Structure formats: structure tokens, C-alpha cells
Protein: TonB-linked outer membrane protein, SusC/RagA family
Organism: Flagellimonas taeanensis
Amino acid sequence: MKISALFLLVALFQLNANNSYSQKYVSMKMENASIASVFEKIEESTDYNILYKNSTLDLDKRISVDVEKIKIDSLMDLILAESSVSYEIRRKLIILVEKENVPERTSTQTVKELKPNFINITGTVTDENNSPLPGVSIIIKGTIKGVSSDFDGNYSIEASQGDVLVYSYIGYQTKEITVGNNPIVNVALDPSVSSLDEVIVTAIGTKQLKDESGSTSSSIQSENIAKSGESGVINALAGKASGVRIGKSNGDPGAGSTIQIRGANTIQGASQPLIILDGIPISNDNIGTGSLSQQSRLDDINPKDIASVQILKGASAAALWGSRAANGVIVITTKSGQLGKKPSVQFSFTQSYDYINVRPAMQNSFGQGRDGVYNTSYAESWGDKISDRSGEPDEVDMTGEFFVSNTTGQTYYPVVSKNSRETYTDSNWDKVFRIGTFSQHNVSVNGGGQRASYFFSYENLDQKGIIENYDYKRQNVRLNTKFQITDWLTWNNRVSYTNTKSNRIEQAGNTTNGILLGLLRAAPDFDITDYIGTYTAANGDITANRQRSYRRQLGEAENPIYNNPLWTVNEQKAPNDVNRFIINPELTIDPTNWLKVILRGGMDFYTDSRSQFYPIGSASGTRSGGYWSQTDINSKELNLDGIVIATHDFSNDFGVSGTLGVNFNDRKRTINDNTISPFAVDSRLTTTDLNPDQAATSWNRNFQRIRSNRGYGVLGLSLYDQIFVNVSGALEASSTIKGTFFYPSVDLAWQFSDLFDSDFLSFGKIRAAWGKVGIQPAPYKFETLATTGFSNFGGSFMVDSEKGNPDLKPEIKTEWEIGSDLRFLKDRIALGITYYSNETRDILFAVKANPSSGYSFNYKNAAVIENKGWEIDLTGKLIENEDLTLSLNTNFNNNENMVVDIAGAETVDIGGTSKAVKGYPMSSFFLPGTLRNEDNSIALDANGFPQLDTDSRVLGDPNPDWRGGVGMQLNYKNLDFSFLFEHSQGGDYINRTRIVLYGFGVHEDVSQEVTLSEDLVNVNGDIIPAGTTVRGNIADFGAGNVLLDESWYRGIGGGLGFNKTNDLYIEDATWTKLRNVTLGYTFSGIKLSKKLALDSFRISVTGRDLILWTGIKDVDPETNNYGVSNAFGMNYFNNPGTRSILFNLQANF
């Protein structure tokens, strides 16, 4: 007999520990047998050993057992129901322990007699998603009589009124229900608080108990992603994990977002984390074309297919991926079917309504012109006061040139006298923007038999953006299958196909084609409606399809200087079509109980066909003669892994596990670009026939291939089931660099709470980790290449301006972290605290070369960046009973970033005004501002105005002081309510849009009229006497009041260009958002099932980003002029962000 005489204090460690053994099925029939003989029978018929103290349990007590295909944990529940003993299953060990706060029982206790007047209770047990739960243990409290739910979650048990039925299942909260008159009892079990984070997924896709890990990570479950109301995966993560910053580009459909974990780690290298999908790396490319919103390829994944997201933040947790893991790793696990489960169908429909969340405040008081005089030849709106006009129709000159609109047929003539008081600021806005919508249909089917399971899903998303003619469509198909070929051989296969189509609109703030640039600069007395038509010159020459803009109100010139925004929306086209396949086969071999072999393959392949079209007459400089480009991107990543995992227990107090793996990775990307400009004919057809002249055609091809091989290993040690150590290393060779590089890591966890019993502290762990990860150089940088001279020197080749470097090394990030995980009051409150510090050395960037070398740049390892900070996660189950649960979760993090060295360079460009500057945080604003005195006060001129310092310097830092999130989940019976707030504290934001709008005289702030109570001077030195009413504002820069009038705002105080007093427009970037709020109700029960054949039906309403609190004017501070980039914190006519209301219906069959 294999029963131990001593109580095993601790279970042995296993790297991939889980409770899979507890899912084995057992059949047993024994009448009036001793507990000892029942245990012996279990050990004979299974692989389990049962371990306990001799004094723990009365072995001679007689019980009867009659079960068929019941799970081992359910059988143990039945056996121990009348005892003061609980149990824990670790691998093949069943460890019996005395229950806390349960009175001791004597060996004379007998099984409780069943009450008379039995009722046959039937029902179905489901999980939190209303899916049936097979194998749930249902016992009558105080007896050993019980049953288990079948594959469909159904059960039947005889009980009496007043009996208490106890429903228990591993990973779920136990529920007790008192039997009444109703013979039908359906039960929904909720996940236990501790089980949600119990198992984590490692960087290579295997599982590990979180309590045994020395590295920190964040887990986000599928229901939290679904409640976000986001159509893409990336934005759904916002506010849910400490140390993770999600930076949105704008509210455009399908627009990409930046993911930054623990600060910026590189300057010009890859800045996004590695994405692992079901164990294989996939692309999150965000390749930009022209001035369009970038897309993030991670958003190709259907969020409803995701089971969980694990964010590995530290170098130790990510080190097995070597030179691809410096920015962290995001591990995504998709949903799968369940063996022994009948097919279940889930259908959901979501309808969203999207609104602009912030709109600039514009003026309607003054017309186009300067110095108080109406004049359409000027770009600004410092003209006459509109209310002072007569209100009669405008006086026009009908003797010469004119314009006839294609849209309304209206004829426009030169204005001789502007008399109309009509303004169009609001109506112009409404012609460009609309209420956006998206409709999402999703259907999934999952189930399985004894040897096979499946999960199938289909998604159809149709999104219409807040900008007219901007749309985004996505279709997703996924099939995940699992075949249990034998008891030791399992085949998994995951296949998905995605098609996305989008009609995008040119939006760049820094070009004359930008929507907001043309819309917001337009004079309030200019109607944009008739944007296209026929221009007739004074000599009678006729030109069709001319653009009418506020700078060219008759369409009299081919280049309108600024686009009419309706021209941008209706005439300029930028469609794209993406097709993507992800295939992931995996073979798992379990030849023994201590050895596992995983053979895994993966292919991620996508094509992205995109074009841009500017008809003749577009306001884009050289493109005003017409421009068309066709870009085709082909990307393929192949990945192969072979993994061997072995475990061995040397004693009850010492265990070892080991993992060895090899990885082969091959990435290819080709970008073909064909361009025609200018056009020979005025056409709206996007074909190569637009101009047959070879000089008007250019063709470019960019090809890159990166291959890498890695060998990696992990050694895990456990001592006394308290101390857990993992030592790992990855040896990597890559085609982008010469030689091999080693990436080591180690982590340590000590569960100190096992040393004592405490009713207050239920779990305590101290952890520490250290590791190295890296970033590869860009391909082909170790040699000097030749570049095509297609448009130069007769089409020959020439030496590239960047000199190759054979001595390149990868960027190396070294990081250490320490922390603690604590749980209180029987795991109802959980607290995680982490402090980290990392340094990235040998950062790669292009350094300006000495002109005498013949090269412009040298690509070299030259910079150092540091990050350090705190992360805190706190969750709590405040109320937990049968009808009511209330839980809260909060997270906090701060990160201090510093550019330590950039090889003697003053700055390195990141994007626009954002630079890497030695001694300052990454992404600092570097541009001109006000001249400063030694005490940093503003240096004023003789009139009391700031002076301009044309030398650029660091004016601000967009990095926040700290970020955090607070969420709540409330469930009352079938009603659920949840919310999530996200807060960003501190940092700087520069609103260059407002600088320009002030200069153009169109912002509401510069439309006020003030009557002076004293003589004031303006920036030109003119004295304006008291009593004068003027348009402008009064300010005091430190030497008394001065007048800010047109001369100030059109000078260094506003307008175009960087030589402005930019520091006066830097604002505190603090903001708070109600990220999402959801109210839902679930209908379920036998009546619903009989009438509609539904297991459950849920209806909910969600608000996404409904409320924004910030001191920043006119803009959502999350929007980013630079798109997906390390540069952020600046607005320059960015497309606006959105807030949304979503309605969702979900039916489970």
C-alpha cells in the first residue's frame, strides 16, 4: 500500500504544474468499505498517491461509494464530505490537510441519514459564459451522497426539502443551494478570485503556476477584453495592466496604436513588444504609407476569439526570445473546444455609435482678411466684424471670371463688397464629420467528443468612421481543433483567415491635404459645400473639375493652397485590402508522466494592397498635377519549435524540471511601389494609363529577409514547496548580425506564508528576477549597399549614403526586478508590488558622419537609455454571496526614463519635434521658445513682451509622472454592472494646432473684444489708449499688462512655423477617462430553454471613453500626431478621438 505515514508538508515543484491530473475519470463501486480500503482502491486504479498524517483521518470509518466516470476531485469531495479534512492535488499527489476552523470529528461519527420525502432534483450547471460544465461535483451537504454533471452539464439527484446541495468544481467558487419545492435547479458557477491568475502562459506558450514564478506579468481575461467596447485588440488592453501604455493615434476606423511596456527602450529600432499567438510569433506591423493613419496588424485578430492575454513585462520572463524581446512580450491564447461537450453555439451582435469626443472652439465673429478688412487673398480671419455688415446679399462682379458648382449648380463671382452675415463654422464641420457606427456580428461553435474537440468562429465587422467616406471592414474565420490520438499523443491545429478592407482619408496634419488643416483654417464666412466645379476665366477659357477652397474661392488656380476638406473626403482616395492567414499546428507527445515533447510550427502570411490617389487640382505641391501610387506589401513569417520538458522528484522536498528547445525563424517582407505623377489627362481612374511618359513613372522595390536560430533552456528547482528557482538562457544567431549572442535570465520566488498559519495573510511571496534581452539591427546594415539611381544619373546605381558597419551588435537590455505577491482574507484581496530597473546599451541609430568620409551617416551602437519604476496591482472581492458579488481592481505604475548617452550627438530625431536628448527623457520636445534669463524667467523686451530664442532646446517632457486604472464589477443575480477609469498624471502636451489657429484668427480665444481701462502697448510698440475697444487679449508676462492683438498672434505668438513662443503653449498633460462602463442583464432558465431553445440570452449597453477630464484645450490628449511611434504628446491637426455607445445582444444555444 502506497500510503505515507507522515504528512507531506509540501508538494514538489514542476515548471508546467497544473491540475490536469485531477480531470481523469474514475469508476468505483464499494459497499460498506473502510476509507483506507477506498484509498487503496484509488491508488491501484489510478496513478495517484494519497498522503496524510495518521491522526488526520479515521481510516476505519465505513462508507459506500457508487460512481461511474467521475473526476478524481469529485470523488474526493464525496469521500471527505463528512470529515474535517480537505485536500490538494499536485501532479500525482493527493495531499490531505486539516480544514481550518472545522471542529474535530471522532471515529464514531456516522453518515447522516437521508431525509424522507425525496424529490428528484434535475438541472444544468454552467460557467460564467453560460456554457455547460461537465464533471461538477454535486453533493448533499452533511452526507457522502452525490453525483457529477454529465458532458452537457446536466445532473439528477434525489434530495429532500431543506437539504443543501453543494456544487464544486476546480477553478470555480463553490455554491450552496437549499432544496425547496422546485424540482429544477439550474446553477451558474463563478470563477474563483485566485484561480483567475493561478496559471500563466510563458513566453514559449507553456503553462506555469503564477504563485511559483519569480517574474511579474499581467493577465487579462476574455470577458474584460469584450467589455472594453473596442473593435481591436490593442485598445482593449488600455488601463488594464500596470506598466503598459496604450497610445491611440486617433479615432479613425482601424487606426493603429502604440504599445509601450516599462518605458521606451530604443531610439530608432523596433519599439513594439513581441506578439506570441498560441505559442508562435506573429506580425504587428504598422507600416505607414504617405500621410495616412497607420494600421496595427495585431488588430486583425478577432477580440472575441481570445481566451486570455498575458503581458510579460520583465526581461527575465521574456529572455527566451532573445533579441526580439527587449520591448516585452504579449502572449495571446485563443479559445478552444472542450472534450466531451455537446456542440454549443454563441451568437453576438454589437451596434456602436461613435461621436467626436473633443472639438476645437472656433469663432464666428470675424471674417477673412487682415487688419479688420475683408480680403480673400489672405489666409487669416483677422478681417471685418461680421455683425457690422449690412446683412444684404454680397455685391459681386459678374463681368469676368466665375465658378459653377458641380454639386449644387450655384454660380460664384468675385466679391466686391462682403455684406452677408452668414457663418458656416458649424455647418462646415457637419459636412465633414458624422456619427460613426460599427456593426459586429460574431458566431462561434465549440464542443467535442471523447477524442476530439473544436472551436469555430466567424466575425463580420462593418465600421463607418466619424469622417465621411472613411470605413473599415473586417471578416475573420477561425478553426481551432484538438485530436487526442492516443493517451500520450495530441494534435492541435489552429487556422485563421482575416480580410480587412478600408477606405482611408488623407489626414496628415503636416500637409496641405489634411482634413482638419483645411477645415479649421477656413474662414468662418466661407461655405465649403460647393468644393468642385467648372472655372471660367475672364477670357472665356473653361477648366472643369477645379477645386474651390477658401484660398481660391473661384477655383482660379490649379493649386488651391489648402484643400477644401470636402475635396479631401470625396476626391482623394486611399483604399487598402489586407488578406492574412495564420496557421499553427502542434504535436504534443507525453510518453511518460515525467516527459513531454512539443513540436510546433507556425506561419503568418499577409498581403496588403494599398493605393493613394490625388486628382489634378489637389493642394499638395508637386502632386497638384495628379498623383497615383500602388503599394503591395507581402509579409511571411515561418516559425518552428522543438521543445522537450522533463520533471523529476528526487525527494519529497526537492524537485527538478528542465526545458530544452530549438527555434528556427524566417521572416520575409517585400514592398513594391509604383507611382505616376503628374497625370497627362484629368481622370478619376486609377490605372497606369494616367501618363504614358516614362519620366512621370517611378518604381521601387524593397525586400528584406531575416533568419535566426535559437537554442534555449530552462532549469527549474523547487525546495520544500516554498522556494522556486528558474534559470534560463537563449543562444541566438541571426542573419542581421555576425556571431552568436547569449541571453541569460534567472528568477526566484519564496512563498514565505507556508512558514506560518494566518487567518489574515492567506498567501505571501517574495520574488526577484534578472535577465537580458535585445533588439536586432536592421537587416543589411553590416555592409555598405548600392542604391538605385532610377531617377538620377541615367538610371545607374550609386553607393548608399549610409556606411555599413561590420562590428554591429544587438542592443542589450539588462533588467532586474524585485517584488511581492500577497493575498489576504482567504484570497479575497490580492496585492502585487514590483520595483524594476533596466538599462539598454549599444542602442543602434544613424549617427551623422564627417562630410569628408563621403557618407552622410554611420549606423552604429552608440546610445544608452535607462528606465526604472514601480508597479502596483490590487484586487479585492468585497462582497461574495449567492446573489451579490462586488469586486474592485486597481493598478498603478510610474516610470522614470533617461537618455544617458547618444555618442556625443546633441539630439537624435524620433519624429518631428520629439527627440532623444542626452540627460533628458525620451521623446522630449526640442524646438524654439521664449528667451530665458539665468533664473529661467522669461526675458522681456522693452515693451514687456517675450523675446524669441530661435535656438531649439528641450521645452517639455510628454512622459507622465504616473498612470493608473480603477475598475469595478458588480453582479446581482442576473444583473451585471462594471466600469473602468484610466488616469494619466503629469507630463507635458504641446498643442501646436492651437498655435496656428491663434495666428489664423479662427480660434474662439482670439475673437474677444476688450475695452481698455488703461493705455496698453502691443508687440510692435504701438500704444493703444484707454477706452479703445480692440480685438485681442490682455496678458502680463512679468512687466505689467500688455495687449495681445493681431500683431502678436500673427507674429511670434502664433501662426505657422516652429519659430514661435512654443513653450507658452505647453500644457499639463494630466487626463482621466471613463474607459468603459457596462450594464447588462442575462436571461436564463428552463422557461427560456423550452420556449426559445436558448441556454441564455444577454443584453447589455456599454459606454466607451464616454467622459474625458483634462485641462488641455480643444483636443483629446491621447491622439498622437506621429501615429504608432515613440514620439507622442503633440497635436498638429490630428484627426479627433471618439466616444461611443454600444448595444450588445448575446445568445447561447
Residues 35-45 form the longest helix (11 residues). The first strand starts at residue 25 and ends at 34.
